[in-house]
Each structure stands twice: as structure tokens, then as C-alpha cells.
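Hi R.,

Quick one: here's the 4-deoxy-L-threo-5-hexosulose-uronate ketol-isomerase sequence you asked about.
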Amino acid sequence: MSLHHTTRHAIHPADAKGYDTQKLREAFLIENLFRKDAIELVYTLYDRLIVGGVHPVNSPVKLETIPTLRSDNFLDRREMGIINVGAPGTVTVDGQEFSLETKEALYIGKGAKDVVFHPAANGTAYFYFNSAPAHHTYPTKKVSLAEAETVELGSLENSNHRTIRKVLINSVVETCQLQMGVTELKPGSVWNTMPAHTHDRRMEAYFYFELPEDQTVCHFMGEPQETRHLWVKNHQAIISPPWSIHSGAGTSNYTFIWGMAGENLDYNDMDKVAPTDLK
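And here's the predicted structure, written out as C-alpha cells:
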């Protein structure tokens, strides 16, 4: 079978306080998301978000259901967002072909039957995806970078000059609860999501990429008064509970994808934490 999956259970913040480095990594870090000609995914018990990666090299890879879903097809009761993090490539949905340039996104609505990821004609194909439960069917739609809601935040003086492209958000495409976007750090900037925040009404997942192989990101998590950190490499992801901050500082600039699922689609629904209040 070309699909491999694991399940991550939800962790209470009081329990996480006592975790050592290895246990934190086992609970919140996804180290290996890409296997040649296969789909790797993690089913989380945080808003039942699925985090996955697809690496088609020699042949197309079809999205199959998993026993955990108890459904005939993966998307019978789910929606899905895909962002291309490799060379330009294609995804077919029920026979319709969608060409995705690097960092372009594809939203797939509830009820789609056949989703197939194809090797890149030039270069290496890597597709990152999130999937969340859905109660309504919205049309499948490709979102280019030109169509994204784009904002520029931060400054070089604060080491956090960055461009945020909201590709799968309710101002751009209709979804049930899934939101995704791409944040690029400018050269000389290393901090993401600082000042930090939490949002009790949504969980979040971060996927780090375009990070040189000899560099790393220190990802900060935990309650604002009880923070922890994880060292993250290129093509690795973090599961962030609703009670946790999600911020990072790299030894180089990098790009990351954020994906959210939960109670609402209000991007600005967050509880901000001043840097001087973190502990």
C-alpha cells in the first residue's frame, strides 16, 4: 500500500509541562512526511485535522481512505487543502486536472472520489496537505499566488519581515473550517508569529520548508507562561494544540505553511501575547 498513517492523540497542557525533549517530539513533531511514491499522513485528535505529504517520483499516487475514517473514500466526510512545495506538478480530482506551480494551492470539497498526485515533468514533486471534517460540499478550486490575500508584516529591525499569503481562507475560497496559507521570511529575518498568540477555538499545524539542509528552526510551543521548544528541520511539521503558542526562530530565513481547523473561520480570532509576557 502506498499510504502510511499514524494517529496522534490530544495532550492536556498540564501533562505537556512534564514532557522531556523526546516525548515532546513524539507528541508534536512530524519528522518524516515524504516517502518516494507514497502518501504519509498523521491523523490528529486536535479538531481531527490530518497532516500529510505526497512524494510521487516514478508513478502517480492515489489518495486512498484509511481505516480510522470508516468511509469508502477519503473525502466522503472531509475537505482538503493541498499546497505544492516542490516543482510544478499536477493533481487530478475525479478526472479533472489541476496544474500547480510552486506554492499554489488546491481546495478539494467534500465528496470527491478520486484524487491522484502526479510526478513532476521537471524537478521533484512534493505536495503538502491538510484535511478536516466537512459538513457541506464546496466546489474544488485552484488558488494561484496572484489570487491569494497577501499582506506584508514585521520589519528587518525586528528580524521578522515576512510576506503572508492566505491562499485557502474564506475571503478567497469557500471552505467549511479549513484555512491554509504560506508565510515567507525575508533574507535577514528569522522570527515567525512574533508577537505570539494562542487561539482556543482552533488548532494549527506548521510545515517548514525552503530551509537549507544545514540550517534549522527553533519552534516555540506551550502555554505562554510555560513555553517549550523543538528543533525542526526542512520538510518537517509541528502539531500545535489550541492552548499553545506557535512561533519560531531560524538559523536562516525559511518558508512555512500554516493550516488551521476548528470552531470558526475568523483569521483574526486570536489571543495575543506580548513578548515580554512569555516565560
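The CA atoms of residues 225 and 279 lie 5 Å apart.

Cheers,
M.
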